[in-house]
Amino acid sequence: MSELFPTDSFVTDPREVARLDHQTRLILARLLRGPATRLELAQIALNVTARISALRKAGYNPVCTENHRNGRSVYELQGTPLLRGHDTGYHQ
Q1: What is the pLDDT of residues 26-37, one digit of tens each?
Q2: Which of 13, 17, 35, 89 is most buried as measured by Cβ atoms within 10 A of its Cβ?
Q3: Beta-strand relationship, 36-37 and 62-67
């Protein structure tokens, strides 16, 4: 998987931009394929909440589109992340 850079408007030098950690990149790769349940994401990283927060901090917009009483939540990415010089193939 190629390196994915978070969006940070005040950092312009790619060498200074912090990379997403491994589990966050795996969660991102899964969400780029389409919606995923929290249970599915938990098979990648136990602390799904922290990984979702890291994606938001990096400029992505993962949202919980369904939240059922039985605990089944569904996440998906919305919008287009602004990645300078890097194409993830994710565009709407």
Answers
A1: 999 999 999 999
A2: 17
A3: unpaired
Q: How many CA atoms are closer than 13 Å to the CA of 33, on its beta-carbon side?
A: 9
pLDDT in tens, 3-19: 455 444 444 445 444 56
Per-domain boundaries in the chain: 15-77
Write down the pLDDT at residue 18: 53
What residues contact 60, with CB distance under 8 A and at least 6 apart?
28, 77, 81
Q: Which positions ≥6 away from 29 have C-beta within 8 Å?
A: 1
Residue 86: which pLDDT band, with cuts at 50, 70 and 90? Answer: very low
